[in-house]
């Protein structure tokens, strides 16, 4: 502290001085030329005539606070955090707030501890929000059920910022005892509570906010975002791989007070990480948002919401986490400074990234013995209630469609793109298999399958025939989780994900290569979706409208109950 004070007063040399910097001031919302003095990883002073052991004259380039991702599931990248850091650090992200509910649904508290251990010593700061909904609902089978007691064992840790997305908003509204105890736990420690409440409005929304929930990342249109913002919620503007809301919410950023807005990625596949939060800043500016406000959304707003008082700005006393930007158009940093040290220089990572051995996790794919008979759906009509995919959205529609019938059983109708979908419970070997039909994948043959299936991450399979669906399931069991494409009994492509059935222990390039191969293989059997595995992975999430499928059956989120896929049909088999 004394050294920082003396450095700020000019009595001691700084460790590093950034000369002739056009500082993006997110407090005063202005840009001005000055020098920045750094001591012990902290910004000591801003002004002229500072001298340092090392000085960098950036000749009028811009200096921005580095970027923060306010809500991300690292497991969705299918890589270990060290590989994630290698990709997002050059893009200017130096802090992320993670919600490890994916791995928690599989491994419980061990999953949270695993994620905390593997982020140690990385050149990015990783804070944790404790999963609030494991499982997300009682309508699915997860590997664990985390209670408020379980969460109380970690809530006071300095690396824990609060309670992650409260997806069970009906539980909040109905004052569910377990939900209430989790909310009270977070409030008793004065920690944040994130929300997840698509389409919630009116008095029910007021009740949700009054319970202590102060953010939401499910807004898909300006009207919804503005209503929530008016009630004091922070709007987490999401741009993931499957769910892309930035473009739809640009009017909010252009016309409203943006101090309650945050940029988040939520779920992204590896290839979408090379341009991270900086890409959202760039696109917002291209759409007409002030560059200063865009930077503010990506830094200060997020830090203030989470109570990270020394992050998100260029000011004395703040951590020296900064970006040197050549312009305010590309937002691709020339230099990334982390804790006062140069971490990235012109795309090359300077900061050390530990290559530790992966911490062991237990076998997580535990399936009761299955045969092709387990995929059979007895039929009493050609009309079924099917899930219809909406491209680039997590939301699905409930639609009536016609299937084919063979030997009294319902089978896929390739001609009208009504394909069989099954979810096999893979944590406790219960034998549960949810069965239904889905539209939007356009497979002409074969099957695709994955153990990445939000949020309980059971095994999800879509196929044109039972034999290939069975082959796909067996392949995932053998590789202890992952993703696979099958055609005529042969594996066309496979990505093993042995860490909880969610993450690879291989490097970024390997995962990227396999993801390309998987998508190409899926396209080769007819799939028309750009990223079919990401889309498929959300079809089992029964907290997002309108029709979903879990290991317990097809679920209608409007009725909050399971539904018979043959109900309310008119044509009966004679």
Key terms:
elongated, alpha/beta, disordered C terminus, single chain, 2 domains, eight-stranded mixed beta sheet, 574 residues
Descriptive overview:
It is a single chain. The chain is of the alpha/beta class and 574 residues long. The protein has two domains: 65-308, Metal-dependent hydrolases (TIM Barrel, Alpha-Beta Barrel); 372-562, no CATH class. The chain is built from 16 helices and 30 strands. The strands form six sheets. Strands 1, 2, 3, 4, 5, 14, 15, 16 and 17 form a nine-stranded mixed sheet that branches. An eight-stranded mixed sheet has the order 19-18-23-22-25-24-26-27. A hairpin with a 4-residue loop joins strand 1 (14-25) and strand 2 (30-39). Helix 3 crosses helix 4 and helix 11 (277-286) runs antiparallel to helix 12. 56% of the residues are buried.
Integer tally of domains: 2
Say what the CATH topology of the largest domain is.
Answer: TIM Barrel
Would you report the number of β strands? 30
Q: Look at the structure and name the CATH superfamily of the largest domain.
A: Metal-dependent hydrolases
The best one-word shape is elongated
Q: Give the C-alpha Rg.
A: 25 Å
Largest sheet, described in full? 9 strands, mixed
> Which class of secondary structure composition applies to the elements?
alpha/beta
| Cα distance spanning the termini | 85 Å
